Amino acid sequence: MGVTRSFFIALSKNQALNSGAKKWGLKLGAGKVVAGTDISSMMQSVKELNANGIGATIDNLGEFVRTKEEAIQAKEAILETLEAIQVYGVNAHLSVKLTQIGLDVDFAFCLKNIQEIVAAAARYDIFINLDMEDYAHLQQTLDILEALLKDYDNVGTVIQAYLYRSEKDIENLQNVRLRLVKGAYKESEEVSLQDKKEIDDNYLKLIKMHLQSPGYTSIATHDHHIIEEAKAFVKEKNIPLNSFEFQMLYGFRTEMQKDLAKEGYSFTTYVPFGQDWYAYYMRRLAERPQNINLALKSFVSK
Ligand code: FAD
């Protein structure tokens, strides 16, 4: 791991800075990649995306949930966002991290919380994506997904191409709506590919597999090479446009996002918002050092 990446990952985990940042409002350029700290400003951004033919998957940011009280608070905030999607009448669904609603506290408690969210979403016909976190939480996330799929079909998850086991997981989840990503965490050699080229190759392989399965495919990447290869494959195999979409993060490659939507592809932007923006932003800086320019420029001009 490069020094810069380690530095920003370390900053993202600093709890004092995380709590401090909740009181600051969006600072250090975070406003470019976080869509506000409250529902009404976030909804403004979602409306703008919708006006460009782009849907949203909304993430109520939240980190370091260690108690039942914090998890319940996060669940209530997510339910409030769900209501807001209805009230504002926007084209949006939700992305949820299970650790935010108690996965590290107690499995059964977390399952009950996500059941409540998925049931409420099902009443509005809104999809809920279970974001995939680090490897330590993967099996539990898939177990929770399996339990939810017994009663609901408005739920899916994320598969990370850097993991050796992902091909098997995709085979087992052929009917499920899946977001496919390269993978954002630092994982060991025992469980994951380390070489960028190997990860990219596996990513394309998994994309092709799921595009040919009944489950809906969300191709979530900023990598134009992958996007071009996916487009060519879809054309070659006559895969219907309504069986897949592209996804990118809010504030990244915004022109390309609009262009893909204009070309007629379904497109969804991942829209994070909330007071807990700090760790998310530090992870984005770690991922792409070019973003540091954003932070520095805004810091200097403040
Ligand atoms: P990279 O490998 O980062 O980039 C490939 C190439 O694309 C670069 O070399 C560059 O040429 C170009 N490029 C990339 N970004 C830019 C840019 N901003 N501007 C110009 N060129 C650029 N990970 C998880 O582990 N779990 C999740 O639940 C999860 N959800 C995600 C949801 C969405 C919508 C997205 C987009 C990503 C998600 N990720 C998730 C993160 C993902 O795993 C990757 O870490 C992240 O997307 C970086 O990889 P990449 O595919 O975008 O391409």
From TrEMBL:
Cofactor(s), names only, from the UniProt record: FAD
Catalytic activity, reaction form: L-proline + a quinone = (S)-1-pyrroline-5-carboxylate + a quinol + H(+)
Pathway: Amino-acid degradation; L-proline degradation into L-glutamate; L-glutamate from L-proline: step 1/2
SUPFAM superfamilies to which the protein is assigned, alphabetical: FAD-linked oxidoreductase
EC number: 1.5.5.2
UniProt KW Chaperone keyword: no
Sorted UniProt keywords: FAD, Flavoprotein, Nucleotide-binding, Oxidoreductase, Proline metabolism
Segments forming domain Proline dehydrogenase: 43-288
Protein name from the UniProt record: proline dehydrogenase
